[in-house]
Amino acid sequence: EQVSIERLGTDGDMEAAALKYKELDGKVDAFGVGGADLGLMVDNKWYPLYSVRPMIRYVKQTPVVDGVGLKNTLENKSAPFLAAKIGDYVERMGKKVFVVSGADRWGMSKSFADAGYECTFGDIMFGLGVPIALHSTQQLKTLAGILMPVAGRLPFEWVYPTGEKQEHRIPKYQNYYHWATVIAGDCHYVKRHMPDDMQGKVVVTNTTTPEDVALFKQCGIKYLITTTPVIDGRSF
Q1: Which distant-in-sequence residues (6+ apart) come within 8 Å of 28 by Cβ?
Q2: Rounded to a whole number, what is the distance in angstroms from the first to the last CA of the chain?
Q3: Pick from 201, 191, 192, 197: which is nearest to 223 by CA?
Q4: Per the confidence metrics, is the pTM higher than 0.90?
């Protein structure tokens, strides 16, 4: 069966995206929300992102989904996949993972925790700019329960880079990058504060472009694992 997939961007402009959804509603078979999430699913509890919801307010006919289902299915296989493919290397370097935003990637976070990795979660650092690390999935669940009812109502661009902000890289929290063997999570977050020296590191992420791959190579990353297939040079 032949399937046509098209990716349309609005450079972070949510109102322009809303109008594009309106224009195509009923004319296509399915919508995927990219560059934003409709909410977070943390251990089967749903936390809506209210600032994103208006983007799909005109959609009346076409089914619309974001990446949450994928994050809790494919991404929860991350640690077993690493064990099968590069297990010896990870064991030699140490089973230590820095998940840049664990609540946003619950399946991936739980996968590493269940596999016995020493975990550091950067949710407070990357989402709120406060240099506090979390170290367990229980802490992630507690944080989500406390913060998401408030954070879910903040403008999305306050907590996640959109448009051209996605291209800005300011090295920060470098001790956590250097400590970990595996750096995992959202590609924009991984790049946002990544140091220039990532020699020998393993990155587990998705939505990588050819430019991302070139940057990772330049910084010395040894293995890049994407949780989704590469189509026309980009992992979706």
Answers
A1: 62
A2: 20
A3: 201
A4: no
